[in-house]
Design brief:
- By secondary structure, the protein is mainly α.
- The chain has nine helices and no strands.
- The longest helix is centred in the last third of the chain and has 29 residues.
- The radius of gyration is 19 Å and the shape is globular.
- The relative contact order is 0.17.
């Protein structure tokens, strides 16, 4: 179930992303808008490097504490990693947003809205960083179907926004990405909290109580 859900989840997310880029390219000046969106996305990928590394460190800890039935410690580790990840990502995103025009000019973009695309992408990195932490916890705690449902919802929200008009420009597509992650992230937070509350507690933990 885990491997199948993981594969299907990646497929759905990638298909949604592909569909949105196709819609963007088909707009007037779509190729130019796509190039602008891609340039901003490169900086976004660099910004998301830290959350990815942190998830690799915390995932084994969450897996161990969850398997041992120590819900309280598992929750504290997840909360601490999310706080650090969100805080550091937020600070880096702020610094990148403040220098958005300079960074985008490195790709040759001097348009007035070039920096705006990167600013929106940076703002979306904060919920995306928290989403990555929650996603790692969800997979680790053995709830692949829940994570598949959240990823599917995120993809549906993104495609719906783009079809509704958010796919007409790079700025709007960046906003659609940020909104879809933020909305799906709230649901993911609720699911992870419920998982922690309903997971079994080991007898050793109960004995210490």
């Amino acid at each position: 179930h885990l491997a199948g859900s993981s594969w299907l989840s990646m497929l759905i997310v990638n298909l949604a992303s592909w569909a949105c880029t196709v819609i963007l390219v088909r707009q007037a000046a779509g190729v130019t808008e796509m190039a602008l969106f891609t340039a901003a996305d490169k900086w976004k990928t660099a910004l998301m490097f830290l959350p990815g590394v942190l998830a690799q460190v915390t995932t084994p800890l969450i897996a161990h504490t969850h398997a041992s039935g120590n819900r309280a410690l598992c929750g504290r580790i997840l909360l601490a990693s999310s706080a650090v990840c969100g805080g550091v990502t937020g600070l880096l995103a702020l610094a990148m947003a403040l220098s958005a025009r300079v960074l985008m000019s490195a790709y040759g973009w001097t348009r007035g809205d070039a920096g705006q695309v990167l600013v929106i992408a940076c703002l979306g990195c904060v919920p995306l960083a928290l989403y990555s932490q929650g996603s790692a916890a969800c997979w680790t705690m053995g709830h692949p179907r829940n994570m598949l449902a959240v990823d599917t919802l995120r993809s549906l929200i993104l495609v719906s926004l783009v079809v509704a008009g958010f796919g007409h420009s790079a700025v709007r597509l960046a906003a659609a990405n940020a909104l879809s992650v933020a909305v799906a992230g709230v649901l993911l937070l609720v699911l992870v909290r419920r998982m922690l509350r309903t997971s079994p507690v080991s007898t050793s933990v109960l004995a210490h109580r």
